[in-house]
Amino acid sequence: MAKMPGGVTMEVGNDGVAVISFYKPPVNSLALPILAGLKDKFYEAMKRDDVKAVVVFGKGGKFSGGFDINVFDNVHKTGDNSVSPDSSIDLVVNTIGDAKKPVVAAVGGLALGGGLELAMACHARIAAPRAQLGLPELTLGIIPGLGGTQLLPRLVGLSKAIEMMLLSKSISSEEGKKSGLIDEIASSSELLNVSRRWALDIAERHKPWLCTLHRTDRLGSLSEARNVLKMARQQAKHIARNMPQHQACLDAIEEGVVHGAFSGILKEAKLSKELILSDTSKGLVHIFFAQRATSKVPNVTDIGLKPRPVKKVAIIGGGLMGSGIATALILSNIYVVLKEINSEYLLKGIKAIQANIRSLVSRKKLAEDKAQKSLSLLKGVLDYSEFKDVDMVIEAVIENISLKQKIFSDLEKACPPHCILASNTSTIDLNIIGERTKSQDRIVGAHFFSPAHVMPLLEIVRTEKTSAQVILDLMTVGKIIKKVPVVVGNCTGFAVNRAFFPYGQGAQFLLHLGVDPFRIDQLISNFGLPMGPFQLLDVAGYGVAVAVKEIYASAFAGRTFDTPLVDLLIKNGRNGKNNGKGYYIFEKGSKPKPDPSVLPIIEESRKLANVMPGGKPISVTDREIVEMILFPVVNESCRVLDEGIVIRASDLDVASVLGMSFPSYRGGIMFWADTVGADYIYRNLKKWSEAYGNFYKPSRFLEERAIRRIPLSAPTSTTSSASKSRL
Ligand SMILES: C[C@H](O)CC(=O)SCCNC(=O)CCNC(=O)[C@H](O)C(C)(C)COP(=O)(O)OP(=O)(O)OC[C@H]1O[C@@H](n2cnc3c(N)ncnc32)[C@H](O)[C@@H]1OP(=O)(O)O
């Protein structure tokens, strides 16, 4: 659908029903002029004698994607909170809820956030089949602010409403019908007609005239409500550490349950205003737009190219990565040919895919018939005969240069000329992989993160020769299989592994300076990562650490930290989670426990590394520990930006959140760094590099931005010409 200017219109039919339609493509967001237009039209409809009832309708197949998130972005940039949506009392209570004529919402496609709140304030809701309904405001660091905290519990009951809000979980119109959110489901073509009839039926008292905020029948008794809220508060503590909006949402709900809806609405408005200004909301709104920005790649998505269909994909290698990628593809209805070198490995790969699918079924994330359908799209092969009509190949074999070169030269012969030749390498230069072919324009990196059918990030690695068409095609496939594709340049580690290699190494460095590893892990997990670097190492397995150590050391000579510790751990029979013994003890059914018996091995490693100044452990604060691990990551991220490996800083934010589980509410690595300040980071790195060596040496990009007081995320055009020339 072409973008068209939006607006609100009203048409009054001969039946006396006024249809108030709003239009704001692409998702009918409730921009401020739309809200103002709605109010005007409602006012007019109430005044006009020829109007008996009102239907409110979002044009273009979608009711509404909610309040305009750009407004929050503006509030964050300007600090001016006067435009935030505290009109809820007026719109929800007066204009719609207490309207003198019945109002029915005709909900097509989706009603999210403010969109669903608008619909809930109406006296009935008619929805098209499979419409998506939800209040996802908490994912933006705010709470529903157009009455949602009061309206939803009054329609679906307290437990269901809390579940939907706290988990930002959408439901379909069919489920909405069962739970009381939706009054009737009507086909898209009949949606308006059925809604008109409902509105007239209410006006003529053939159907009840229900004002949502006046209802209490779904709320249960006060003591039941208190129990539900108490449990929800405990749950919120676990799912939303370091975030204020979950408890605030429960505060607003509780206020409404205990003191009535009007009081609840006032509390909601007050809390909304405060939360909009929170750092959490700033970080989450930034990530919302940053994620959408990744689909805009200059000279790829803006030059009129159309993505070509990719219907059949071949995967070479059925190991952990290959089987995960195959799972992701068949789950999205793409036909997959899996190639292995012998039937034993092939069977192993197929079994791994079946296990992935079965685990989704057993966790109720996939229906049995869908699982069967997906598995029917998989075919195992031992040669290239099936490759003659594939649209894309993804190579996922071990990191061995000559093996990959041989595979790519075979692929050039076995695949049709349009076929995309992708490699899932995480380290090897794609130019080297494709050296023995003449197909450099269709060679591209498709770097998935493990487990590939679960992790949302897909790094699309382009070389100078990869064609724009191939990048666009792979971006499209990425979206079809529900990944967030981020286009990056070709270098060791690409964006995520490159930016984050100092994370693990920084933790090792601190440990060798005498800091306790379990203290480090605790602090990093308090900061918001799902686990600390040592537990992550245990979970990922030491094999990866050993394999990449030398690659990083040679690519980033002079700023890596090599440690004998992993070798010592392996020598002492420790292999991390793989054999249940690493820094932690892993036992089935219980959380990993720090293992004190690892400390003598660490001591031995400290002696060998000999980096403690004067041979004595350093003394550091908790804050310094977090900074000594994350600032080197920021520093390397600066180099990634400076070298043009990513096209914008916010791509690194998205990549760090989706690839490394950096807390999204901190806005991603560069956004967070700017909240800390380039100057502060630079000064500390400089201080540590003088005390402890080159691992901490600030990059030129960081130094320049710190000195010139330019945010790290500012577009690279604001840097000096020396820097620009390298981009
Ligand atoms: C006061 C109220 O309680 C507060 C609120 O209502 S806050 C808003 C609550 N609503 C939401 O959180 C929904 C956010 N939007 C979404 O989840 C998804 O965009 C969607 C499910 C609606 C559509 O998804 P999809 O079709 O994949 O399209 P998607 O690429 O995400 O969005 C299309 C465009 O619409 C924009 N958009 C989506 N929702 C928007 C919104 N609520 N406000 C402003 N812009 C919005 C996106 O930024 C994107 O813009 P772009 O093309 O310039 O990049």
UniProtKB/TrEMBL annotation:
Organism: Cinchona calisaya
Keyword entries, A-Z: Fatty acid metabolism, Isomerase, Lipid metabolism, Lyase, Multifunctional enzyme, NAD, Oxidoreductase, Peroxisome
Assembly mode: Monomer.
Subcellular location: Peroxisome
Any GO MF annotation of the entry: delta(3)-delta(2)-enoyl-CoA isomerase activity
Pfam families registered for this protein in UniProt: 3HCDH, 3HCDH_N, ECH_1
Protein name (Swiss-Prot/TrEMBL): 3-hydroxyacyl-CoA dehydrogenase
Sequence ranges assigned to domain 3-hydroxyacyl-CoA dehydrogenase NAD binding in this UniProt record: 312-490
SUPFAM superfamilies, sorted: 6-phosphogluconate dehydrogenase C-terminal domain-like, ClpP/crotonase, NAD(P)-binding Rossmann-fold domains
GO cellular component, one term: peroxisome
